[in-house]
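Field: sequence (string)
Field: structure_tokens (string)

Example rows 1 and 2, in order.
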Amino acid sequence: MSRLRACRRRKKTVYGLTKVDQEKLVLLWGKQVGIPTVALRYSCTYGPRQSIFNPYTGVIAIFCTRLLNSLPPVFYEDGEQTRDLSFVEDIARANLLAAKTDALDGLPVNVGSGKAVSVREIAQRVSDALGIKIPPEINGEFRPGEMRHLISGTERIRAAGYVPQVDLEEGLGRYLDWIRSQSEVRDYFSEAAEILRNKGIVHRVTAS
């Protein structure tokens, strides 16, 4: 699935709708006032200094904080959903490229690795790297509107010269080196998950 089709599906959620509307607004404004404008669509970004205090942060950070507190990673759905993960330095390179080239002016541009990895595999890689073997928890919950599979079609930005330089193995290793250096790593996910349930953002699968 291309990122463009994924974005269209996300218009069914308030979060997705705001992203699409902001992108259209920025590109139209740039065209009308004559200022070169690019709408970069980042795939799932991770890396050192990603918040370990924000329970809504990326899945790698959440899995790390859970495992480091002797708690199981939690899967929504079945853990087989896939994501395209991009290391933060590659995202920075994409921004610099967009600022320097005119090949992307006026365009929405996907930024990602172009490779998909399942949530289950991410949890396994984190567990193996930390040396903490706790089986993941699947509690029959899901988030309405969440995409099953997300992989960025990166042909446009690659044609402009973009090449991701940090693969998942290296990026994950560098993130774990950083998180091990932190003095306090608490689990904030449990409390946040309850809030999400109470607000109806997370639903439980019910038998039909």
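Row 2 begins here:
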Amino acid sequence: MPSAWKPDREIDILAGTPPGGGLDRTARTLSAALNANNKVINIPGDGARKVWASVDARAGDAHVLCISSPNLTTDFLTGIAPFNHDSYTPLAILYNEYIAFVTRSDSSYRSAGDLLKRLRTDTAKVTVALSTAAGNPNHIALAQVTRHAGGDVRAPLIRVFDSALDAVADVVAGNADIAAVTAASAVNELETGVCRALAVSSPARLGGWYAQTPSWLELGVPCTLGAWRGVHGARGLTQDQIAYWEKTLTLATTAPSWAPELARHYWTPLLVTGDALRTHLAREQNEMRDMLLALGFVKSA
């Protein structure tokens, strides 16, 4: 039976990063693919957490969509935020985005092996730029690499920025040695030659500007962590509203503009909705808790 609910006014797609940031790229790709009148609204700040206050203010309103990520889980587990996925209405995961470890082109880190050596022998002198929050998937990926190298996962100096673009800019400015960011976030710097990529967290090599960059896995490092991007609605949506958005978001991933954007941004398709989505989020929270506990980022369950 078709959903009885449909939008009767413009849809607001909220992104917690500035224009050009990771969540903004998702919002604009979705905006172009969505078969509904919509506009993108950027609400950056507080490590992409400020945007959720706007969602809180619109409980029960199915005309607002917010771009989401695993950070809702990691921020909650580390005590940075009092809310997680259950605080809102999960609607879909759209794709996965793997993490690139990049450095300045004139850096002493000529290869991933150089980074592994420094993480093993002088971990505290490695400065890493991240986006949004300590303890997020990018930080966990760094910790997995550090642990494999034999270093203290809490020793690297972490610099946190609201956007991955700012984290890359910090490396270009010479303030951080490495940026661990979503792959698309460093493409401009790879194109212009000011940065080079040392490794990526994907199971296999990515294409394009990362075609010559090894995956951590092929280097023998067990790091295949990605950061999915999805969509949440406000809390208190009805089943009809949820059904409409699950169907509409699924159709958006078949739009002619969708696949080229995934390829352009080095995104991997990963559509999850309905019961499978809720199961995925619950399992991920348990797995993230275990990883954060093991890595010392949280003190107890």
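free_text_note (row 2): Residues 11-96+226-294 form a domain with the D-Maltodextrin-Binding Protein; domain 2 fold (CATH 3.40.190.150).
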